[in-house]
Every structure is written in structure tokens, then in C-alpha cells.
Amino acid sequence: MPMMFLWMLMTWLGQQPGAKPAAAPASSLDFTVFKTQVEPIFLAKRPGHARCVSCHSTGTPLRLQALSPGAATWNDAQSQKNFEAVQKEILPGVPLKSRLLIHPLATDAGGDHFHNGGKHWTSQSDPEWQILAAWVNGKPMPAAAKTASAAAASKPAAAGASMHGPRIIQTNSAGDTVDIIDPATNKVVGRITDIEVNHGAAAAPDGSRIYVSNESNSSLDVADSKTLTVTKRIPLSGHPNNIAVSKDGRRVYVAIAQAPGAVDVIDTTTLTRVKSIPIKGAGHNAYVTPDGKWVVAGSVGGKSLTVIDSTTEETVWSMIFDNGVRPITFSTNPDGSTKQMFVQISELHGFAVVDFATHKEVQRITLPDVPGVKKNTEGVQGSPSHGIGLTPDGKTIWATSKWYGYVFAYSMPDLKLLGGVAVGGDPDWLTFAPDGKSVYVACAASDWVSVVDVKTIKEVTRIPVGFVPKRNTTAVFP
Known about the structure:
The chain is mainly beta. The chain has helices at 3-12, 31-43, 52-56, 76-87, 99-102, 127-137, 143-147, and strands spanning 165-172, 177-182, 187-193, 198-203, 209-214, 219-224, 230-235, 240-245, 251-256, 262-267, 272-278, 283-288, 294-299, 304-309, 314-320, 325-332, 338-345, 350-355, 360-366, 388-390, 396-401, 406-411, 417-422, 427-432, 438-443, 448-453, 458-464, 469-477. Helix 2 packs across helix 4.
């Protein structure tokens, strides 16, 4: 065996050449223990969190079987497939080198940097974690773990509040709540509950409703803005990502994040899906341009951007990029028509500038490296820059850096770097207060929203929210 291959193999196993081999596990992985002790962990509901199965039965690398309609657990055939899938995420006998155990474990307790499903266990003493560790080690379940239940810390409760004036709507992608922030106080003043794995959000222009895409149910959920309760779940054609509402409030457009790719069109009068517009590749985000004339959809897998006429709801043109299309923001001409699109692209630490009239890319901006700050690539998912927006006055454009946990500001229209500031782990999305004085950056790995003063480019506070906050939007309620 070549020495280089031997060295690589030993390194993967957590050994160094010449070191004493690790002892073999006491027994092989036990399927019965998996079905009776491990699978219930994937179904458990922890306060504020989404269940593991809600994410891992859809688009994640660890793919669990979807529960059969009406079933509370898996049958034997499904459990066997789950067993085979989970084995790929563990190293028998070595819990702390098994992704199944370190991915949802708090970083300061020995876990890795980031888990899109959130950190479910704050310590290795958590009963659920001990069950998994014992199973990986091939040992009997700890006595305490057999009877104890997980006690994940829940986020502070926030009752429904008066929805008057501006609000920041913050989704929590690994949770079951949507937080409502008052930008006047920078406090969470309300919370929509019972939307597991919520993704995108938009408010009706008249302030009567809040729309949220629900990944666990593949639905568009409708919440009453006065009571913050879900009143309707509208079935979609597939797994949803981000959403946008038309300027007149009559339509909601939902990016469908599975092949072959589509934008679902929801009629807000009947609260039904009336059409699915095909796009090239699974949809990532849907937008309505500032003038309301166009719906724009991006696809990561299709590396495409599709422009749809909002009147006819037919595709009018599209573009193909060298990589997947991520968040987009728009600038306008003096008459309010769309001038440019600023497009974040997979593997690009920055954004591309597209002339809307000619359908051509005219420039690329690369965000700077940050001296003295270690670049983090773990959990970035091919998207080192994922969050971009133009201030309401159109004078600056802001873009996030997952690599460095920063947000950077550039002047408009010359795109000169003005500065940047650290905001938290994996900044994923941003939105602005209506007056343009503050930018709100959702930090997915930190479970907070960073508030940055636009003029000074300095962080002013951090707002604790739900688990793995990602998409956010600004709304003004009458």
C-alpha cells in the first residue's frame, strides 16, 4: 500500500502514522437499538426547534425517509433505509468524529461550527446525545438517558403585539417560530408560532397578512397580522424557498426548490395556487422588481435567472451564469423602472452587476479579505456571500460575507468600498429599516440579528431570535 494512501487513511480515522490503532468498537451498530432509541430522537419536538425529520426528509445530504401520510413513525422497511443513511454520518466507536453527533452539538461543547438545523444539544451530558454516543460505541444505553427527555433551551416567549408602523419580519429556518422586531426599540415584540422550518416571508401591502413559506409541509402559510396566528396553509407544487408579494397584493410568488423548478403563483383573494411557472432548475429565490412589473427567480442548480412579466405571468427572458444564482437586489432609473440587478453567485465572495435593459453582466465585485480574521468555509454551502440589499435612498449597497462573519458597504453608483463590520456567524440575509438608518443582518450560526448603523458602519446591538435565522424582510403596517 503506498505510504501516501496509508497516511490519508489513518488521518481520516483520526490516527497518525506510527500511532497505536484505536480499539475496535465493542459491537457493530445495532438496528434494533437504532429503531427503538435513535429514530425517536429524529422525531422529537424540542422547544423552539424544528424536528430533525422536517429537514432531513427533504433536501439534506442525510436523507431520512418521509413519514407515510398519517404515520407517527417509520415502518421496518423505512427504518432500514434510515439505518443505512445514518451509518454514512458516523465513525463506529468514535462519537466525536461522527457527524451525526457533532453537527447538532454546541460548538463550545465539542461540536463543529455550524448546523443548518440548529444546535440541539448544549452539552455532551444531554440525554439524547448520550443515547447516540452509546449506540455509536456499541454499548448499553445510559440508565439516565433511557428515561430523561431532551431539554433544549427555548427562546423567550413573545406575545402578539400591536402591529402598527414598521416591523422587521425574521424567519428562523431551524425553528418553528417567526420573530417580529420593532426597529424603534430593536426588540422582538411578537412571534408567529407553529410554522416548522419556515423559510421566506412577505407582508401584504395593506398589512392584513404575513405570508411564510413552510418547508416541512411544502405550503405557503398565511398568518393574521393582528393575532399572529396561522389561518391557512396553501399546498404548493413542491418544496418552497423564498417568496415575494406583488405590489398590489393580489399575488404571492413562491420559488419551488426542487426539480424541474418553478415559481408557484398564489391568488391572495381565493388563497389558492393558480399557476406554476416553469424555470430552469430548482428555484432558490423569487422577487418582484421595485416597479412591480417583473418577477425575477434565481436557481442554484440551473445557474439561471428568469424574468417573468407580472401581467401575463409568462417568461420573457433569462440568463445563464457560471454558477448558481443566490440573492438578488435591484436599482432603479429616475422613472422607477429597473436599472440593474446585483446578483450573488455560488462560490463568489461578492456579486455580479447585470444591466437589466441589455440582459448582460457588466461588472463583478469581490468582497475584501479581512486581515487578522480567519476565513471560515465550514457550512457555507457553496455560498460565501449570501445576503445583499440596497438602502431605501439608493446610495449604498450592502453585502454579507459568510467567510468572515462581516457585512460590507459600497457606495452607489460607483461601487467603491466604504467599509465593513463584524456581525456574527454565517450572516445569511439582510434588510433595512424603512428610514434607511439601520441594516438588520440575520446571523444564522449565532441565532441573533445584528443591527448596524448605516452611516457609521458600526454594529449597535444584537437581537436574540429563534434557531438559525436566515431570510428577513421589512414591512410597514398601517
